[in-house]
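Budget justification note: compute hours in this period were largely spent on complex prediction jobs such as the one shown. Inputs:
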Amino acid sequence: MNHKRRKKKQKGAKMVVKVYGPDYASPKRVILCLIEKEIDYETVDVDLFKGEHMSPQYLKLQPFGVLPVIEDGDYKLYESRAIIRYYAEKYRSQGSELLGKTIEERGLIEQWLDVEAHIFQPPLYDLVVQLLINPKTGVASDPKRIQEDEEKLTKTLDVYEERLSVSKYLASDTFSLADLSHVPFSNYLMTTLKKEYLIRDRKNVSRWWDDISSRPSWKKVLELHPPVL
Amino acid sequence: MVVKVYGATYAACPLRVMTCLFELGFQFDLIKVDLQSGEQKQPQNLLRQPFGQVPSIEDGDFKLFESRAIIRYYAAKSASQGGTNLLGETLEERALVDQWMEVEVNNYNPLIYTMVLQLVVLPQQGQVGDMELVQDCKGKLEKVLDVYEERLSKSKYLGGERFTIADLTHLPNTRFLVEEGGMEDLIKRRKNLHNWWLDISSRPSWLKVMDLPK
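Corresponding output:
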C-alpha cells in the first residue's frame, strides 16, 4: 500500500485522519464529507486490481476486505456511511451543516441515506462491476443483469424525480449528507457507464445532480483523486 | 401521541421498528399491510412509502420510512429526552454503532434476504427456490459470522459494552436464520456469537414482539 501524503494546511505536528483507497467511489464518499467539513486528511492507496484489499495487513483494519477504512490516531472506523455520520457530527461547528437542524430533519436525512444504501446503490454498484470492473479482470458480463439493474434504477429515479419536484434536495431544502452520499457512484453514470440519460431525462433529478456535483468540494475530490474506473 | 406503524408482524423490517419502540417505551399502533396480496404496492401505501415497501410510520404530522432510519430517529428522540440511550455514549461509541449497523446492511442482510426469498417467499408463491444459491449464501455467511465472532470476543455487544440499536437491528434476520432458515448451528458453533444471540433474543422487547399475533 502506498502512503501518499497530501500537504494541506499543515498545522504543526497535528495528526490527520487517514483515508484508505481514494481511487474508488466509497472512499470518495468520505473524502467529499471531509472537504465539506474543512477537515484535513491524508490518503493511503489500496489497489483493488492487485488484491491489496485482501492482504492480511488490510484485513486487520477492515475485516470484510472492502473500502474504505479510516485511521484517526488510534481510532479506526469502517463503512463509509458510518464514517461520514461521525465526521459530520464531530465537526458540527465547522464547514457545511450536513445533519439538519432538528431531530425530525435528521430523521429525513437518515431516511434518504438509507434509500441510497438499500435501493439506489445496489443496482448501480452491480453496473460498475459488470461494465467497469469485469472487463478489467477478464470476467464475462451478464447482459440480463445489466438490463435488470437499469430497470431498477429507472424505477428508483422516477421516485426521486417526484420527490425532487417538491423538495430542493432529498431530505429538505438544504444540502445534506443524504445528497452527498449519492455523488461518487452517480458520477459513474455520467461518465464511464455512459448512462447520463437516466439523470438527464428527468428534469428535477437533472437539476439536483447539476447542483450537488458542481459544489467546490466535489470538484476538489475529482481534482485531487481522479477516478480510476 | 401514539405512533402509527404500517407493516406486518411477520416481516423483518417492521419487527425491527416495533422492537425498538418497545425498548424505548414509545406507544404504537400496528396498522396491518397485507404483504401476501401485495398491498404494499397499492396506491394508498405508495403515498406513505413511494418504493412500495414496509414499514413506514406516522407520528402526528411527521412521516418516515426505512426501518433503520426510523429506529435511529426514535433512539435520538429518546436520548434527547433523557430516556433510554440506545445510540451509545460518546461520539466514537456512536460511530461504532453506526459501523455495525452498516455491516448488517451490507454484509448480513443481503445474504439472509436472498435465503428468505428462496426458502420461504418463492415456495409460498408456488415456485421452487434455488437451493444452490442458498448454499452459496450460507458459505458467504460463515465467513461473515467469523468476523462477528471475533468482534464479540472483544466486547459484549457489537458497539461496545452496552446493548444498542446495532444489536437490535440484527434480531429479525437472525431469528430467521435460527428458525425457518434451519441454520441455528451457524450461531451455536460460535461461542461468543451464541451468547450474544441468547442475550439479545431474551430481551423483553423482543419477546413482546414475538408474542404479537401473526
